[in-house]
Amino acid sequence: MHAVPAIDEGLPDGELVRRVSARDHGAFRVLMKRHNQMLYRAARSILKNDAEAEDAVQEAYLQAYRAMGDFRGDAKLSTWLVRIVVNESITRLHKHTRRAEVIRLEGDNPQQDQHSSEDSMNQSLPEQPDRATLRAEMRKLLEARIDSLPEAFRSVFVLRAVEEMSVEETAAVLDLNEATVRTRFFRAKGLLRESLSRDIDLAHSDAFSFAGARCDRIVAAVMARLEAAEPA
Hints:
Layout: H1 13-21, H2 25-47, H3 50-67, H4 77-97, H5 116-122, H6 129-147, H7 151-162, H8 167-174, H9 178-204, H10 213-229
Helix pairs in contact: 1-2, 2-3, 2-4, 2-7, 3-4, 4-8, 7-9, 8-9
């Protein structure tokens, strides 16, 4: 029995598509790892739920696998995949809420992947535990505020700001005109700044808080020293 050769993870998307069309599971595994984060972020921007977004991505990959032979090589694979997961996410949202705005996605325009910033982050020096904790808390706050954006703005913001898609690429994926993408992105950034500013203002009163156990500990220590210094 011959060993199955390892798939070169640096293969271009076009070659991966050709191999996946021939039902090469190894090539499909490489393809999924390459595009997982982009698809998850797109799904998460619509569904606002981690588990639902993961399910949508999985279903989108299955649909893509079955339709890989129909993929047109003149378009970017990432655009095609994002369009599939966006449609799947909207279908799920509509099924659960019966009030989602269905976004039609038609046409194939190129989309350029952006990996360099993430690669440079991965190559940075390890953070100290306290800084890592702070970054995690800030990330949670930012994600919560992005979730609170109106649905029409949220997907535009995630694709433009988080995935760094261009205006043209975002318009193609969401079937919007470019002026609408610019307007929604501008408005989303404004709403996000306002909500984060309110959070910071509320946090000012809690900065360097000295209540609770720390306050009690200082009081107890001072009283103990006073009592020890006073003559019996």
